[in-house]
From TrEMBL:
The chain holds residues 622 to 901 of 901 of the full protein. Residues 24-276 form the EAL domain. This is Diguanylate cyclase (GGDEF)-like protein/PAS domain S-box-containing protein. It comes from the Bacteria.
Length: 280
C-alpha cells in the first residue's frame, strides 16, 4: 500500500517496521536477562472434577515480574519462541512446576500437574530426555504430569511432532490438546496421538447456552471424548449456568475464574491439607 502513495510513505512505513523489529529484539534480550535474573514465576490454577468438586490437578501458568509489574504469557511467549528462549525457559517452567507439585504430593495431596508446551519446544533437540530428567530429579511420577499442546502442533510438521509426542507418551506422561474446538485437530489425529485429554476452548464455554451452534458443538466434543475414552476439561468457566450446563452434558473436569483464579504457589499451599475441594 505504501508503494501506491509515493516515496514519503515508503519511508514512514520502513521506519515503523524498523521500530517494531528493534523493540522485538529488545524484548528478546530483556527476556534472556529475565531468565538469568530469576524474574519468571509460576501461578497455578486448580482443575476440578465436576462431579465431586475436588481439585484433581493444577495448571502451571508462567508470569514475568518485570520491575514489579506482572506481565502475562500472551505478551512474551511469542517473542520467547522467536528467539529460541522458549527452550531454556520451558525447561525452567517444567522443573519449577514438577518440583513444587512433587513437594505438595509428599504432604499427602494426590494432585496432578498440567504444563503448557510450545511447538518449538516439542520439536527441539533432547526435549524428551529433558522431560525424563526433570521427572527423575523431582521424583514426580510420570503419570501425574499432563503436557498441554495446542492444536497447531498437529498442523506444524505433523510427522515430527506426532513422533515426539509418541515418545513423550512412552515415558508415561499424559497428553492434552489445549484450546480444542477450532477444528484443526481431527478425530483421526486424536486417535493417532492417543491423547489423554482435550481442553475445550474457552470461547466455547463463553457462548454456552447463548449460542445454539456452540452449545451443540460443545455437547458433541464431550460426547466424542466419552466415545474415545478421552478426558474432557472445560476451560474458562465464569458463570454458574455454564458450570451447570457442563455438568449436565457430562463434562469430566472444569477450570475457570468461577472455580478459582490462577494463584501463586503460596495460595495453593493454603489448600494443602485442607479439604482440597471447592464450593461449587
Ligand atoms: P491456556 O493454556 O489456555 O491457559 C488458560 C488461560 O486462561 C490462562 O491465561 C488463564 O489465566 C486464563 N483463564 C483461566 N480461567 C479463566 C476464565 O474463567 N476466564 C478467562 N477469561 N480466562 C481464564 P494466561 O495465564 O494469561 O495464559 C495464556 C496462555 O499463555 C495459556 O493459555 C498458554 O497457552 C500460554 N502459557 C501460559 N503459561 C505457559 C507456559 O508455561 N509455557 C507456554 N509455552 N505457554 C504458556
Ligand atoms: Mg493450557
Ligand atoms: Mg495453551
Ligand atoms: Mg486453553
Amino acid at each position: 500500500r505504501a508503494k501506491e502513495r509515493g516515496a514519503g510513505h515508503v519511508e514512514v512505513y520502513a521506519a515503523h517496521m524498523h521500530d517494531t523489529v528493534v523493540s522485538r529484539l529488545e524484548l528478546q534480550i530483556r527476556l534472556r536477562q529475565a531468565l538469568a535474573a530469576g524474574e519468571f514465576f509460576l501461578e497455578y490454577q486448580p482443575i476440578v472434577d465436576l462431579d465431586s468438586s475436588q481439585v484433581t490437578a493444577v495448571e502451571a501458568l508462567v508470569r514475568w515480574n518485570r520491575d514489579g509489574e506482572v506481565v502475562g504469557p500472551d505478551d512474551f511467549i511469542g517473542a520467547a519462541e522467536e528467539s529460541g528462549l522458549i527452550v531454556p525457559l520451558g525447561e525452567w517452567i517444567l522443573r519449577e512446576a514438577c518440583q513444587k507439585v512433587a513437594v505438595w504430593r509428599v504432604s499427602d495431596w494426590d494432585i496432578g500437574l498440567s504444563v503448557n508446551l510450545s511447538v518449538k519446544q516439542v520439536l527441539s533437540d533432547r526435549f524428551v530426555s529433558t522431560v525424563e530428567t526433570v521427572l527423575a530429579d523431582s521424583g514426580l511420577p510420570a503419570e501425574v504430569l499432563t503436557l498441554e499442546v495446542d492444536e497447531e502442533v498437529l498442523l506444524d510438521d505433523v510427522g515430527e511432532a506426532v513422533l515426539r509426542l509418541g515418545e513423550l507418551r512412552a515415558l508415561g506422561v499424559m497428553l492434552a490438546i489445549d484450546d480444542y474446538g477450532m477444528g484443526y485437530a481431527s478425530l483421526a489425529h486424536l486417535r493417532e496421538l492417543s491423547v489423554d485429554a482435550i481442553k475445550i476452548d474457552p470461547l466455547f464455554t463463553a457462548d454456552l447456552g447463548r449460542d445454539d451452534t456452540v452449545t451443540l458443538l460443545t455437547h458433541t466434543i464431550i460426547q466424542l471424548g466419552r466415545d474415545l475414552g478421552v478426558q474432557v476439561v472445560a476451560e474458562g468457566i465464569e458463570r454458574s449456568e455454564q458450570l451447570e450446563q457442563l455438568r449436565t452434558m457430562g463434562c469430566d473436569r472444569g477450570q475457570g475464574f468461577l472455580v478459582a483464579r490462577p494463584m501463586p504457589a503460596s495460595g495453593m499451599e493454603s489448600l494443602v491439607g485442607g479439604e482440597s475441594g471447592v464450593n461449587l
